[in-house]
Amino acid sequence: MTTRNGRASAGPHAVLPGSFDPPTNGHLDVIERASRCFGRVTVAVVVNPQKQRPMFSLEEREAMLKECTAQLKNVSVEHFRGLLAEYVNQVEADVIVKGLRAVSDFENEMSTALMNRSLSHVDTMFLMADQKYSFVSSSIVKEVFFLGGDVAALVPKPVLRIMTAKRAGLQRSKK
After folding, report:
1. Where are the domains of the chain?
2. Is 76 a known active-site residue?
């Protein structure tokens, strides 16, 4: 198989972008399934200016995802700022992969996918979330967690460990 630039590869290179604040089991499910479909997957942690102040820095989110995906040999994790279309061209990706939980996600993602295609000539493929994660979002996880709810089934163990440490640090700083 060859990439867009004509180089040999083990299969298509997919970019899976997201804010991942924090990474959830739903995110990992989509990453793992994408890793079985594509020769190479780059998980691209992005600054989303439309979202409120993130709980974790870009570097923290990148580190969490690296730890959670270490067993997936064809998956790499990095962060970027700016337009996804420019990033996709820069890394010479063949496809953008996005996870969808519900029809409302598709409605929100469709126009973005069309814009990215017009700017980068790269198509977006959508993977449906596993049913058991269809209600999970990073926003809901953060809200439940900081209100004292149990999110252990919703995030990977390393993420829960880091969230717990962050909450403890915030509580100490308020005293």
Report:
1. 13-174
2. no
Mind spelling out the 3-state secondary structure of 74-119?
A: CEEEEEECCCHHHHHHHCCCCEEEEEECCHHHHHHHHHHHHHHHHH
Looking at 13, 27, 40, 98, which residue is catalytic? 27
User: In the annotation, is 142 catalytic?
Assistant: no
3-class state of residue 4 by DSSP: coil
Q: What is the pLDDT of residues 17-73, one digit of tens each?
A: 999 999 999 999 999 999 999 999 999 999 877 767 888 999 999 999 999 999 999
| Per annotation, catalytic residue among 19, 35, 120, 138 | 138
Q: Which residues, including other chains, have CB under 8 Å from residue 16's CB and lie 6 or more apart?
A: 30, 31, 34, 41, 42, 43, 44, 96, 97, 98, 99
pLDDT of residue 175: 64
Q: Is 51 a residue of the active site?
A: yes
CATH number of this structure's domain 13-174: 3.40.50.620
From the list 7, 51, 121, 157, the catalytic residue is 51
From 19, 101, 120, 142, active-site residue: 101
Count of positions (residues) in the chain: 175
